[in-house]
Amino acid sequence: MGNLIRAEFRKIFTTKLWWALLIPTVVLALGWSWIWAALATSLSDKITSDPEMQQLGVSVNTLPLSVFGFARAINISTIFPMIMGGLALSSEISRRTITTSYLTAPSRVSLLTSKLITYVVFGLLYGVVITAFASLGIAIGSDKALLPDVGGWALMASVGILETLLWTLLAIGVGALIGNVVGSVLTLLLYSLMLENLIDLVLPGHWAGILPNGAANGLTGSVASKIFLDTVPPIENPTLRDGVERVVRGVSGAAGAFDWWASGLIFAGWMAVFFGLGWLISQRRDIT
User: Fold this and answer.
1) Which residue ranges does UniProt annotate as crossing the membrane (predicted)?
2) Helix segments in the chain, DSSP class H
């Protein structure tokens, strides 16, 4: 197994794909979080300096508005590790190098297990990079008072790394099912960036949070919403409170999502389904 894992790492490191995807990951995580944080700072300054808001006693310059940029940056940046996962098996199937891999490995199970271990490592690596540069982006773009506390940041970083890992593994399954590089990448990108967003427009209540992208966004978005709402003074009116929560969840990218732990379980379930189906297909696929 050790030799197979080393071979999988060698396959990745001898190509330019891993760092070709890592560079835009860094740029997107840093840029997206910085833009959102800068907008939050500008909005905070505008509201705080507005005479009417001052008369009403409204002040937002101590609320952790930057967490919305943190969550949004993590969610969008996962498209690159997702692409990497989608190519894990589909590229070998398309080029027919999977035949050699199967024939030289003791069994298909051992080969697929070595790929799983290898891409778990890369999923975690990308997750750490994404959360690190998203953190840097909000630190640069926000006033210090708008940043989350250490506990909030640690929870956001943890669920961000988990989301990245789950997307990577889910994409491996999709790539194995489709077995084509272009088809796998297009399917993953079109679904995550466009199709599910269109479906969400017609889904009521929490239905959006049951779908893969909604559940994934719910991991970070629900945490960001909780961090923000915990700093807001209690709202006694239940209707107003529910309305504020819906708006905050929408801003954080978690509209219709469940709590972060429930979203994580739902997304892990989707990952298990696609990865499991990809595993079964790979076990039975004709390589002649």
Assistant:
1) 21-43, 63-89, 116-140, 152-170, 177-194, 260-281
2) 2-13, 17-49, 51-56, 66-77, 79-95, 97-104, 108-141, 150-178, 181-190, 196-200, 212-229, 238-252, 260-284
